[in-house]
Amino acid sequence: MTEEVPTEPPILSLGSRFYTPVEAADFPETHLRFRNDAAAREVGLGGLSDDQWIRHFARFEPLPDNLPEPLALAYHGHQFRNYNPDIGDGRGFTFAQLRDDRGRLMDLGTKGSGRTPYSRTADGRLTLKGAVREVLATEMLEALGVPTSRTLSIIETGEDLERHDEPSPTRSAVLVRLSHSHVRFGSFQRLEFMGERVASERLLDYVITQFYPDVEAGDAPGLLGAVAQRMAVMTARIMAAGFVHGVLNTDNMNINGENFDYGPWRFLPTLKPGAIAAYFDHSGLYAFGRQPEAIYWNLCALADALRPVGDPKALQSELDRFPDYYADAFADAIHRRLGVAGQGGKKDQEFAQAFFTFLHDSQLPFERAFFDLFGGSAGRDKRERSPHAERYKGEDVIAALDALEPVESQRLEHPCFKDEPETLLYKEVEALWDEIEPHNRWHKLDEKINRIRQMGEAYGLPAAH
Fold it and tell me: How many CA atoms are closer than 13 Å to the CA of 416, on its beta-carbon side?
């Protein structure tokens, strides 16, 4: 353990209006399937034995000098833009708060840890397949430079679950994620809905103190502006990653601007703005091309929730800046993914839009195009080895790319660039699951995660956790 573990976890300062103490489920079995040692080391947990790991992350024995019992957080939210006051942590809780090796507060939160007062009719469990899908999503997004929660642990729990959207009975698991906070937009929405201004002010102070120290105490518009900037970066980077989240509800919006809570998700084979990840998204509300619009709508909902504690005109002024934040962040995200330096201002925005138009019109494989073109002119040899080499010739946007200065061109010497691009498409995920169920072969998943991490090293796109 590290001496930086807080003796009084800051979340306790919020008081019982924000959470309900709960007990974890008593699972019949505990089989450790995944442990993220790199993330664990950052918060002083790297030295845990497998037995200690299971005691903490399946039996939920409290960590020393930390939360004495798990806390299920209370929140509301818009789900597909319909307000729902009957939600909260229904199959998860906050288990602990730790300081990372940079002194920043981190939450350990769970998924599939049992029923809570917010579970309604659900069983509070997580399928093993859902856990496998989440670790794959978080690993791939982190490798592509997207601010995201990280999967710390997956432990299979030996229960048979019934689900209507996958073959049942199916195997169960409990997952632990590491993120900067589990405070959601819906946390503020709940307090506004209930007319609890004092509690809203307390949550505002908590968020500013712990996560936005550059914002003045009590400055709700300042917080909204800072959150909008982070959300613009996160949104731009999921777009540049070709990622469809699937369920961008306000209860799935982290106040820290991290992508998290991965249920239905997809990476695009080719750029299709109308691609959806959730089979129940019949209107395409959260389709790939509508994700910036969806996140702006959610920021508007957050602004509404902050009106009792912030000046409405100042809040609106901060909202009005989001399109500019996003345009700049998207230009930066495309240049980062291509490994080239921008020129600044409108030229970068125009190039980014032109590149996405090229991807759409050409229908080149999404990840392949970024792989082939990474490094611009410095990576021309790699591009010419591509099976799509002819499709890059004579394109104005490729000429514009080659005119940009490569960044860290030595990255092109990484062994990953001598191989094929790493992807994480639907059929690949299903194939990995087919190795686990029914054969219980885990080595393919381990190999995939290792390749994804090596790809992340090659690209060098820090997610700014």
Answer: 22
Q: Which of 226 and 164 is assigned the larger pLDDT?
A: 226
Tell me whether residue 198 is exposed, middle or buried, using C-beta atoms within 10 angstroms of its C-beta: 0 to 12, 13 to 18, 19 or more. Answer: exposed
* The one catalytic residue among 89, 219, 251, 348: 251
Residues 127/173, Cβ–Cβ less than 8 Å: yes
* DSSP string of 256-324, one letter each residue: TS-B---SS-EE-SS--TT--S-TT-TT-TT-GGGHHHHHHHHHHHHHHHHGGGS-HHHHHHHHTTHHH
Structure tokens at 100: 């990372």
Give buried/exposed letters for 239-264 (b at 16+ CB in 10 A, else e).
Answer: bbbbbbbbbbbbbbbbbbbbbbbbbb
pLDDT tens digits, one per residue of 63-97: 999 999 999 999 999 999 999 999 999 999 999 99
pLDDT of residue 223: 98
Is 86 among the residues known to form the active site?
A: no
What are the residues whose beta carbons fall under 8 Å from the beta carbon of 419, sequence distance 6 or more?
Answer: none
User: What does the pLDDT look like over 113-147, one tens digit per residue?
Assistant: 999 999 999 999 999 999 999 999 999 999 999 99
Structural contact between residues 54 and 194, judged by C-beta atoms closer than 8 angstroms:
no
Q: Percent of the chain scored above 90 by pLDDT?
A: 96
CB under 8 Å to 425, separation ≥6 — which residues? 266, 267, 269
Give residue 408's identity as a one-letter amino acid code.
E
Burial of 376 (0-12, 13-18, 19+ CB in 10 A): buried
CA separation for the pair 339, 346 (Å, rounded):
19
Give the DSSP per-residue string, 366-386: HHHHHHHHTTGGGGHHHHHHS
Instruction: Indicate if the pLDDT at residue 1 is higher than 90.
Output: no
pTM: 0.96
Closest CA to 47 of 29, 59, 63: 63
Whether residue 205 has pLDDT greater than 80 = yes
| Amino acid code (one letter) for 33 | R
Place 7 in a pLDDT band, splitting at 50, 70 and 90.
low
Query: What is the bridge-based pairing of β-strands 31-35 and 150-161?
Result: antiparallel
